[in-house]
Fold:
Amino acid sequence: MLTSVYEQNKRTLITSAVLLLAIAFAYSDLRLTIYGALMPMFEWFETTPFGYVGKTWGAAFATVQAVHLVGLGVLGGAVIAADGRLLGLLLSDVPAKTVVDRSHRVFVWALIALLATGIFMACGVAMKIYYLPVYWYKMLALGAGMLFHFYIRKPLLAHDIDTLNPVVVKLVAIASILVWFMVAATGRWIGFSG
Amino acid sequence: MNELLYNLAVMIDDTQWSTLLHESYYMYNWVESTHVLTLMVSIGILFLIDLRMLGYAFPDVPASKIAARLNTPMLIGFVVMFITGILLFYAVPVRTTQSVWFRIKMVLLVACAVNAFLFHKRMNESVASWDNEPRAPKRIRTGAMLSLVFWSVVVMCGRFIAYDWFDCDRDPNALISFVAGCVDGQTRY
Structure:
């Protein structure tokens, strides 16, 4: 009985457990312990070739920032197209499955570009961002976004979308737009802080 | 011409609203954040359309459908982007007017507009014959590629405006000074 309930709701239960653990972690002393333990890693980031180039060659850092922004734009376009379709606002005469699947490919490439350029940028200003709360909010939003996209949204939309509850589909679309705009907004705010 | 632009910028800089916007930490940053985040709507969707023409996105969806259905949200994004862009200029008029990157960006925006006009004209003339093809004909692909390059450089220039490498108060060399439009004896930067 319990096994069948678990099997039927595996994804929901695991996601809920992750959320509960994240909340418990946020209020525990373990967070501070891990935060302190991460400092040597951030110090090391600045000594890597990426960190060296990022710190000493302003033009390279700025160029990578610009590529990061272009990647953000492409990721945003893919999110808007797919979630706009799920909300019934865009491309409503194209099957939802087609729009979601084709957008996903663009999304993945944009995400790879964002992560690659993001790691480079983080290395260049590692100690600055280590002390910035907004950087950690961004990482939290990014983690939540990736978990949501690959672990919840994609498996859900792998089903025949027309058979899914339309309210759930719309809520997924709204959550997706919000989480990725949150990632972008917190990223932008890093530039205003510190 | 540069002196005229400088005087105009100083005049805008003297207005109370320009100072208020510039000195408001939250308002200025919100305007700037909106300008950047609108990238996700405007340039993001534009790049999807361009990638469709190049055959890298939505190859099995008719090109005309992608272009037509995504046009409105893209234009809404661009309108917000232009409004916030004007506000950003209004908040820091002198330095922006004399920014090499801002000037390159403005020239490229004109190039983007011309390219977009030609792209749509060519597309509307011929789309019926290749609408369902995964890749558009070469002329259209060239327009899409130019759009990707121009807008990427626009984003790059926009990002570079924040850096003071070539500002007039840093005594740039003659070429940079000429391109930036630095004015002899200027007192405002």
Remarks:
- DSSP finds nine helices and no strands in chain B.
- The radius of gyration of chain B is 20 Å.
- The interface with chain A takes residues 29, 32-33, 36-37, 39-48, 51, 56-61, 65-66, 69-70, 73, 152, 155-156, 158-160, 163, 165 of chain B (CB under 8 Å).
- The CA atoms of residues 39 and 57 of chain B lie 19 Å apart.
